[in-house]
Design a protein that fits this description.
Helix content: 40-55%
Oligomer: single chain
Shape: globular
Radius of gyration: 26 Å
Strand content: 15-25%
Strand order of the largest sheet: 10-11-7-8-13-9-12
């Protein structure tokens, strides 16, 4: 690594953090914390993270995370400096920060009673206090934009619970930004070697072997690496749901010896495998796998872990079949998504490649790179919205400007406030599509859900689509500003997505996104409406006697917000379009979807909505969609193409979960 590269990265990191904090009206250390946690969550290092800042005598904390399936309690502390990167993070400083963080864990029970009931810090104290009762391990994370001069402290304990330490300093963050991945490749050793059967192959870029892996070993691998093991499997980031998972768990608990017969097993890839060979040069056993990824069978793996760790089950009799494909690193992007897509799956929804190389993101980047936004604020300067298909693209482009004048010109044409990422795009679209509970489940899970919807109904990414998504971004930022003015505090992101979703619902998506694009701002009438709506939404989202972060993830929260009484003010009503805005051009198969929806009886759509309401099997937006389709069919109103495609998905899901239409 060249020193100049690290220096440039340090400067860009500071500038980007400052600009983002200013644009989002957040603190600089808090913005840096959120940025790093998003990267860590994307890599599967942490999950279910929340930011909340508290500092007192001998105590300091910036947030916490709760690993899925009783994995770990994670606590975060941040060290961010605006000085040059040559200022090192010393061993004494890091040890002091870790002590302050651990002291918070010790004192959280006594800190909580002195805090306001709506405080995000109180929510954090309650969550940490509860987790300490049964969590198997604690991990302390120090996040810093300085270079550390020492390794992290050795493992200690708190009340008999192991406590490990991790330092994410400038060098480690730089490795992530320049390599595109946070962790080292996962390496798995087998002693004794794992027997395998090699399949002959004439394909030069990959080969396949079959093996049977002990279930406990697979569960332990997941416990150690978490979703890093499943980075190429979108289901790794979704909530466990559906009858298949329950079936897996029942088999593991009641008939573990039959698991191999009942279960489809896992499909995995590795970049290198060390084999034991027989005298004929045939592969007969596996000593080591490097770069292991489970691209199909994420639910099986997570269920094994849940039974072992969460339910203390015995997996000693469990065996899992594994199809292992060795893929050269240079062909991963080409081959792995196809393996994931075409492998036999245990759930109806196909796995998708949600990496930066997905065709949706490539197309969106290509169009936005040549798309000029109209001049705003009385200026004659047109600008661009910079879509970061991969982390660090903005900084890379900025570094190509070798002089200060060239860098100022680049920032004038591509302002930092107009930079947005894949997870930002998913956040904007899902808020508009009235899915705020998904947005509230943090960036990676929301992004994974977004990609599933893209796969089910791939939008035509054209000029109009990009303009309207950017208009959503402008609307989201206007809502975010209103939430800040109403003192939403650390719950601002939750209040923002819910307010935008409630606005979309109240206006039936008839806000003129094209006008927002042309003017690069929302209208005064819309801004006034947000000022009126935001505090009403905030009272429900930031509810008393609820953990706000967990409450916002539930569809029940959206149900409560969607039923909150609010009438669109007359000035805004006068601006609304006559028909809902279709963000995407008509997808392939749209006409067929509309014909199929219209061929299904109105009574069946009503019955789906009623069944879902009584059983709770579908999410609120899906239930509402069934009723909406029935209503529109009844009055002869045209059903938007995207809505028709989503409605068919809802019907298929209802049938899978047990809905049975009345006989004709």
């Amino acid at each position: 690594m060249a020193e100049l590269d690290l220096n440039d990265f340090a400067r860009a990191l500071i500038a980007d953090t400052q600009a983002t904090a200013e644009a989002e009206q957040t603190s600089i250390p808090g913005t840096f914390t959120s940025r790093v946690l998003e990267d860590l969550e994307q890599a599967g290092v942490v999950s279910n993270t929340f930011t909340a800042y508290h500092k007192a005598h001998g105590v300091e904390v910036y947030g916490y995370g709760l690993g899925e399936a009783n994995g770990s309690l994670d606590l975060f502390i941040t060290d961010f400096r605006l000085t040059q990167w040559e200022d090192k993070l010393t061993k004494a400083e890091s040890e002091k920060l870790f002590r302050r963080l651990l002291t918070f864990a010790r004192r959280c029970g006594s800190i909580r009673p002195n805090l306001d009931e709506h405080s995000d810090v109180r929510d954090m104290c309650e969550a940490v206090e509860k987790a300490l009762a049964d969590v198997p391990r604690i991990r302390l994370f120090l996040l810093s934009n300085r270079v550390s001069t020492s390794d992290a402290p050795a493992t200690t304990e708190l009340g008999g619970i192991p406590v490990s330490h991790e330092i994410w300093d400038l060098s480690r963050l730089h490795r992530q930004a320049t390599s595109g991945m946070i962790g080292e490749p996962i390496v798995v050793n087998f002693d004794p070697p794992l027997p395998c059967l090699s399949a002959p192959s004439s394909e030069p870029n990959h080969s396949v072997v079959l093996a049977v892996v002990p279930g406990q070993r697979l569960a332990e691998l997941y416990d150690e690496h978490r979703t890093r093991l499943l980075e190429l499997n979108v289901r790794a980031f979704l909530q466990t749901r559906g009858a298949v998972n329950r079936g897996i768990k029942d088999t593991l608990l009641k008939a573990p010896a039959r698991f191999l017969a009942y279960n489809n097993g896992v499909t995995a890839t590795a970049s290198h495998v060390d084999f034991v060979e027989n005298e004929d040069g045939e592969y007969v056993a596996i000593r080591e796998m490097r770069g292991l990824q489970i691209v199909n069978g994420g639910q099986t793996t997570a269920s094994l872990h849940h039974v072992l760790v969460g339910m203390k089950g015995d997996l000693s009799q469990v065996r899992v079949q594994m199809k292992l494909t060795m893929v050269r690193p240079e062909h991963l992007a080409e081959i792995v998504p196809k393996i994931s897509r075409f492998s036999n799956t245990q759930n109806r929804v196909s796995l998708v490649d949600f990496s930066s190389n997905h065709e949706f993101h490539v197309a969106f980047e290509r169009i936005t790179r040549t798309l000029w936004a109209p001049a705003a604020d009385g200026s004659s300067q047109e600008t661009r919205w910079f879509y970061e298909r991969a982390r660090g693209q903005y900084a890379d482009e900025l570094s190509k400007a070798t002089s200060a004048a060239a860098q100022r010109k680049f920032k004038a044409l591509c302002p930092t406030r107009q930079k947005f990422s894949k997870s930002d795009l998913a956040k904007y679209v899902h808020s508009w599509e009235q899915l705020p509970h998904l947005v509230s489940r943090m960036a990676q899970k929301n992004f994974a859900e977004f990609m599933i919807r893209v796969e089910e109904s791939t939008p035509t990414v054209d000029l109009r689509y990009c303009q309207r998504v950017i208009a959503m971004a402008l609307l989201f930022k206007a809502v975010d500003k209103a939430a800040a003015e109403h003192k939403a505090g650390s719950h601002k992101s939750l209040v923002t997505t819910y307010t935008m979703a409630r606005l979309s619902l109240a206006t039936d998506r008839r806000i003129d996104l094209d006008r927002i694009w042309r003017e690069q701002d929302v209208t005064p009438a819309l801004r006034a409406a947000l000022d009126e709506l935001c505090p009403r939404v905030m009272r429900i989202v930031v509810a008393a006697n609820k953990h706000v972060g967990e409450w916002a993830k539930q569809s029940a929260c959206w149900d409560a917000v969607s039923r909150a009484p609010w009438t669109v003010p007359e000035p805004l009503a006068d601006e609304l379009l006559e028909q809902p805005v279709e963000v995407a051009a008509q997808p392939v198969g749209g006409d067929e979807a509309l014909d199929e929806v219209e061929s299904i009886a109105i009574e069946e759509w009503d019955a789906i909505g009623q069944w879902a309401k009584e059983t709770g099997n579908l999410e609120l937006p899906e239930r509402q969609l069934a009723f909406t389709v029935a209503k529109r069919l009844d009055i002869g109103e045209v059903i938007p193409t995207v809505q028709a495609i989503h409605a068919l998905h809802v019907r298929r899901e209802a049938l899978r979960l047990g809905f049975r239409p009345a006989p004709e």
